[in-house]
Specification:
46% helix, Helix Hairpins, alpha+beta, 21 helices, CheA-like_homodim_sf, nucleotide-binding, five-stranded mixed beta sheet, Four Helix Bundle (Hemerythrin (Met), subunit A), kinase, chemotaxis, flat
Length: 709
């Protein structure tokens, strides 16, 4: 059997469980007695250990078992969570994540580096401090009138009936026995073949096997039960503890009544049921059939609930991200082919053909929306990871800082989520190091001693806005200007507006830190942030109030693959404007604006850009031109074009290395005719409009100042 795909599932699920474990540990710091979260942490560790045992990853099993034992003592109330234990468990999670990553990269766990082994040994030593010698078995003796059928302490009996789909689900019954061998010793195994059909009716992919197992171990019941985590739902698993009373065996025999006295004989052969209790159990077996029949009357309702839960779980499947990317690419090609079909139908002037093409276009659009939805994930999972960052960094720099999250249910493309992690990390660290003041400074300013870093996300104009803000001291524009001048990033006497001054922190090599630390001072963080955001076709802007705090606002497209666009023409060239940024289209009143760079739009000044001049198109403009009014991030401007060619589903394709640095362009697409249309970078164009306006205002101010002098 090829286990590669199953191990891949184990790796993915373990990484999810470790993330859940980390989230619960960070939350429990504020509520150390929260039983629900304590159980969640224990279950995560327990499931990872059980799954690792199934695949023979003994090093993970051994290490996790020690951590699980400590967590079990926490559950029992013998140990209480505090800052030190939480920090230790976070380090345990980090080490497990490293082991899982080792597996994911195809390396064997037997070839771990010495540093990793040393870390594991140190963590195991720290965990052992929380483990006192286990008390002697204090299980009370059975009452005199209740026979004790078990031969000795530590003797467990496992009655296992696997589900018919166990093999199909990638589970091997023998793997469970191998894992049990890591918890104790298997004394005897009795196979149960009563459910095996005739040879002609046998399905080689179905499981008909049952096992009766005598097992000796000092492990607790939860550890043994955890071995069967993945087959409990569809099978019948009964675990009888050492020195279980005869009534427990009677209940087991009643459940297995269909197997007759053979079940009682198996219990005796396993040594779990004493010989002198055999006769009592056999007599009880006659009434067991009646009991089983009575219970069967209650089965439909219970079975319906179980089936409902199983059906709900079965609706969730894992899909490889590469397969989703391939689907999106195919949908993109389908859109291009559909556009070509629609164009040919319109040329044919056949009503039936046009109607069919319109129906096809509508279905393609629905397929596109459904395909894009598959890649949409909530950003909350990414935000929650920064709880750990804030906790660790605040301890490192000696500041009391808390992270507040809002808008975690905002969805965006998985590709964008994966690439936004590093920029957010830089911004959160900067907010803590540069933004939040030391406690004494906050006290003197009348602020709460605990600083706050906020992460917020919301949808706006077909995109997503992510805000990283703090309630710290804010940015000092004059200090930024002085530093920029000192580092040679600006020339002496150069004039800037407040916004432009703040944006200097995104220049390469710029930093306001007086000393270089592990967190900042080298002048590369904010430059990397802007570069990464720009690569995602996004923008980043700053708002800051001195003494009150700073907000970094990132605007990103919801998806990097397919958008709705407005197709426009200038000369013989075609361009696409993202439709969610288009406000309206109007005719250009050319007689009134000759030589001007703005027009009067219902009483408001609207600056505009002539795309013919921007792209140096030498063709003659038509007698009638149009203005496409666009808005982004609160800035509005007009694009002067020749033709409005209608709405168009745009498959965004990246520009090559030669053209990727061309301003005002963010990609290209292929039209239904096979021609290429360039996609305009609206945020970049609006930035140019703003810069030209600021330059013009600054020039006018300097001219007025010179005249006054």
């Amino acid at each position: 059997m090829n286990l590669d795909s199953v191990i891949g599932t184990f790796i993915a699920e373990s990484q999810e469980l470790l993330q859940q474990m980390e989230d619960a540990l960070l939350q429990i710091e504020h509520a150390p007695d929260d039983a629900e979260r304590i159980n969640a942490i224990f279950r995560a560790a327990h499931t990872i250990k059980g799954s690792a045992g199934l695949f023979g990853f003994d090093s993970i099993v051994a290490f996790t078992h020690v951590a699980e034992s400590v967590l079990d003592r926490v559950r029992a109330g013998d140990v209480r969570f505090n800052g030190d234990l939480i920090a230790l468990m976070l380090n345990v999670g980090d080490h497990l994540a490293g082991l899982i990553s080792q597996l994911a990269s195809g390396h064997d766990l037997s070839d771990l580096p010495e540093t990793t082994r040393a870390t594991e040994a140190a963590l195991t030593g720290e965990l052992s401090h929380y483990l006192e010698p286990q008390p002697a078995n204090t299980t009370p003796a059975a009452a005199p009138d209740t026979p004790t059928p078990v031969a000795g302490a530590g003797h467990w009996h496992l009655s296992l009936r696997f589900g018919v789909d166990t093999l199909r689900n990638g589970m091997d019954p023998l793997a469970f026995l191998r894992y049990l061998g890591t918890l104790g010793s298997i004394l005897h195994v009795e196979p149960v073949l009563d459910h095996l059909p005739p040879l002609e009716a046998l399905d080689p992919e179905s499981c008909y096997l049952g096992l009766e197992v005598a097992f000796e171990s000092q492990a607790d019941q939860s550890a043994i039960e955890g071995a069967f985590e993945f087959v409990r739902e569809e099978g019948s698993i009964r675990i009888l503890p050492p020195q279980a009373p005869l009534s427990a065996f009677r209940e087991l025999i009643a459940e297995r009544a269909a197997e007759g006295t053979a079940q009682v004989e198996r219990l005796v052969r396993c040594g779990s049921l004493a010989a002198d209790a055999f006769e009592q159990a056999a007599q009880h077996n006659d009434s067991a059939h009646e009991t089983a029949t009575t219970r069967a009357a209650d089965t439909p309702e219970r079975a319906a609930k179980d089936n409902s839960r199983t059906s709900k779980d079965a609706n969730l499947i894992r899909v490889d991200a590469d397969k989703l990317d391939q689907l999106i690419n195919l949908v993109g090609e389908l859109i291009i082919a559909g556009a070509n079909t629609r164009m040919l139908a319109q040329r044919s002037n056949l009503a039936d053909m046009c109607e069919s093409a319109e129906t096809l276009s509508r279905l393609v659009e629905e397929v596109r929306d459904s395909a894009l939805t598959l890649r949409m994930v909530q950003i909350g999972a990414t935000f929650n990871r920064f709880q750990r960052v804030v906790r660790d960094v605040s301890r490192e720099i000696g500041k009391d800082i808390v992270l507040q999250i809002s808008g975690g249910d905002t969805e965006l493309d998985k590709t964008v989520v994966e690439k936004i992690g590093d920029p957010l990390t830089h911004l959160v660290r900067n907010a803590m190091d540069h933004g939040i003041e030391p406690a004494e400074v906050r006290h003197s300013a009348g602020k709460p001693l605990q600083g706050v870093v906020r992460l917020n996300a919301y949808h706006e104009a077909g995109g997503i806005v992510i805000e990283v803000s703090d309630d710290g001291g804010g940015l000092n524009p004059q200090k930024i200007l002085a530093k920029a001048t000192q580092r040679g990033l600006v020339s002496e006497g150069q004039q800037f507006g407040d916004k432009d001054l703040l944006n200097l922190i995104f220049e390469p090599g710029f930093s306001t830190a007086e000393q270089i630390s592990n967190l900042s001072g080298r002048g590369v963080g904010m430059d990397v942030v802007k570069r990464n955001i720009t690569a995602l076709r996004g923008t980043v802007e700053l708002d800051s109030v001195l003494g009150q705090g700073t907000c970094v606002r990132i605007r990103l497209p919801l998806t990097l693959a397919i958008i709705d666009g407005l197709l426009i023409g200038v000369g013989q060239s075609s361009y696409v404007v993202p439709l969610d940024m288009v406000e309206e289209c109007i005719e250009l009143p050319s007689a009134e604006i000759a030589g001007q760079q703005h027009l009067d739009l219902r009483g408001e000044v609207l600056p505009f850009i002539r795309l013919r001049q921007l792209f140096d198109d030498q063709s003659q403009p038509p007698r009638r031109e149009n203005v496409v009014v666009v808005r982004y991030a609160g800035i509005r401007a007009g694009l002067v074009v020749d033709q409005l060619l209608g709405e168009f589903q745009t498959v965004i394709k990246p520009l090559g290395k030669v053209f990727c640095q061309v301003p005002a362009l963010s990609g290209f697409t292929i039209l239904g005719s096979g021609a290429v249309a360039l996609i305009l970078d609206i945020p970049g164009l609006l930035t140019q409009v703003t810069q030209h306006a600021n330059t013009r205002i600054a020039g006018q101010s300097n001219a007025l100042r010179s005249t006054a002098q």
